[in-house]
Automatic annotation (TrEMBL):
Annotated protein name in UniProt: 8-oxoguanine deaminase
GO molecular function: deaminase activity; hydrolase activity, acting on carbon-nitrogen (but not peptide) bonds, in cyclic amidines; metal ion binding
Chain ranges passing through the membrane: none
NCBIfam families, alphabetized: PRK08203.1
Keyword Hydrolase (UniProt): yes
Family recorded in the similarity comment: Belongs to the metallo-dependent hydrolases superfamily. ATZ/TRZ family.
Keyword Hydrolase in record: yes
Top-level taxon in the UniProt lineage: Bacteria
Annotated keywords: Hydrolase, Metal-binding, Zinc
Species of provenance: Faunimonas pinastri
Domain Amidohydrolase-related: 51-416
Pfam families per UniProt: Amidohydro_1
Length: 447
């Protein structure tokens, strides 16, 4: 089946003014101004109302945190006190709560134009040993691409870390399950719907040896590595006191300073560290909404990119963002970076690039993140019908500057996964009711 996505109102692609042809889940042809597809098509989709983007790619999230959004125990706190308040609450996470949280977060992301999502799941209270299996199952049902990251924590409060004993695992258990998940789900081929990364949580929740052993396992299975790093000044101080070095030195000491690695946040890097990260092609996921919510600071996006580090975009957890909307995150990224740099040097196209091609590089994927021949047919379609867009003259800029937050249609691998603003096969009212009930039952009462 050859489908012509025909005559978009605007499109973020070169040489595709009249759209593109989708065949077997990939982009087969671009149709330039005044052109026609070179071969017959079976049908076409009239995109004349739509601004078309490559599918957005979310490179950092914590799906389970949708259960504790705007929680009174944690609001108005910086990172460390925020975590201390929530860890005792999160220990109540059950398999069914995790499933509903994953389903809701993925649905939110899809509706915002996201076609590939990476979730950093590191919380394994007793009974949640199948957390990765649950996430893969939910992503497959929704038809969204996903990088599941087998996260981990083994440095608890009694050992000098931050999390309580009830949510950590021992090193042998972590490594054994990491290998199981990789063997079962990691697909390194182009067009893969499911990939696996390994993701010890942070310097203040894992041991040095677990970091080293995880890096060795990633090398053996040819997968990506992910962790939080450089998010707050408290983390810098912790690393110096616990390990005798700053976070980037710790990263290098544990064998993580390479192109397999992408980091969440990357706020507090000095000039030398930025150069070293760029030289090693370590990616950084910019999380503007979370960084503003927790008051963590500003990611040095321009310096990192100039040094050679891929920069992507992430919404981060839904308890430090309180939303799972990546298109909203694009606007936040533009605004916060204009506070840091000259207005003319950060444009809406930069913010969109971070959420597409930059994020794809962070995940090590060369098959998504752009509308080009041979790429996967992952696209987000937005309309400008709402009042907020009336009077807008540049459609691509309008999506970001006027605050687009909900896609009208979303295509993944050539299949419609959102139609007329609604996710295919999902009863939104039922999902809202079931998720909300679960959040109240398990998490409303605090510890």
């Amino acid at each position: 089946m050859r489908i012509w996505i025909k005559d978009p109102l605007a499109i973020l692609a070169d040489g595709a003014e009249r759209g593109f042809v989708v065949e077997n889940g990939t982009i087969a042809e671009l149709v330039g101004r005044g052109g026609e597809p070179p071969a017959p098509v079976d049908r076409f989709f009239d995109a004349s109302r739509h601004v078309v983007l490559p599918g957005l790619i979310n490179t950092h999230h914590h799906f389970y945190q949708t259960m504790t959004r705007a929680h009174p125990a944690a609001i108005n706190k910086p990172l460390f006190p925020w975590l201390v308040a929530l860890y005792p609450i999160w220990k109540s996470l059950t398999p069914e709560a995790h499933r509903l949280a994953t389903r809701l977060a993925l649905t939110e992301l899809l509706m915002s134009g996201c076609t590939t999502a990476a979730d950093h799941h590191y919380l394994f209270p007793g009974g949640l040993e199948d957390a990765m299996d649950i996430q893969v199952d939910e992503a497959r049902k929704l038809g969204i691409r996903m990088t599941v990251t087998r996260g981990s924590m083994n440095l608890s409060k009694k050992d000098g870390g931050l999390p309580p004993d009830s949510v950590v695992q021992d090193e042998d258990t972590i490594l054994a399950d990491s290998e199981r998940v990789l063997s079962r789900y990691h697909d390194a081929r182009p067009g893969a719907m499911t990939q696996v990364a390994l993701a010890p949580c942070s310097p203040f929740s894992v041991t040095r040896n677990l970091m080293r052993e995880t890096a060795a396992l990633a090398e053996r299975f040819d997968c990506r590595l992910h962790t939080h790093l450089g998010e707050t000044k408290d983390e810098d101080q912790f690393c110096v006191e616990m390990f005798g070095m700053r976070p980037v030195d710790y990263l290098e000491d544990t064998g993580w300073m390479n192109s397999r690695t992408w980091l969440a946040h990357g706020v507090h890097f000095n000039d030398d560290e930025v150069k070293r990260l760029g030289h090693a092609c370590v990616g950084v996921c910019h999380c503007p909404t979370s960084n503003m919510t927790l008051g963590s600071g500003l990611c040095r996006t321009q310096e990192l990119e100039a040094a050679g580090a891929p920069v992507g975009l992430g919404v981060d957890g839904s308890a430090s963002n309180d939303s799972s909307n990546l298109m909203e995150g694009v606007r936040h990224a533009l605004m916060i970076n204009r506070l840091q740099y000259e207005v003319g040097s950060v444009t809406h196209l930069d913010a969109l690039r971070w959420a597409t091609e930059g994020s794809a590089r962070c995940l090590g994927r060369g098959d998504v993140g752009a509308i080009r021949v041979g790429m996967q047919a992952d696209c987000a379609f937005f309309t400008l019908d709402e009042l907020r867009f009336s009077g807008a003259h540049d459609p691509l800029a309008a999506l970001v500057l006027c605050g687009a937050h909900r896609a009208d249609r979303v295509m993944v691998a050539g299949e419609w996964r959102v139609e007329d603003g609604l996710p295919v096969g999902i009863d939104l009212a039922r999902l809202r009711a079931e998720h909300g009930d679960m959040a109240r039952q398990l998490f409303a009462g605090g510890a």
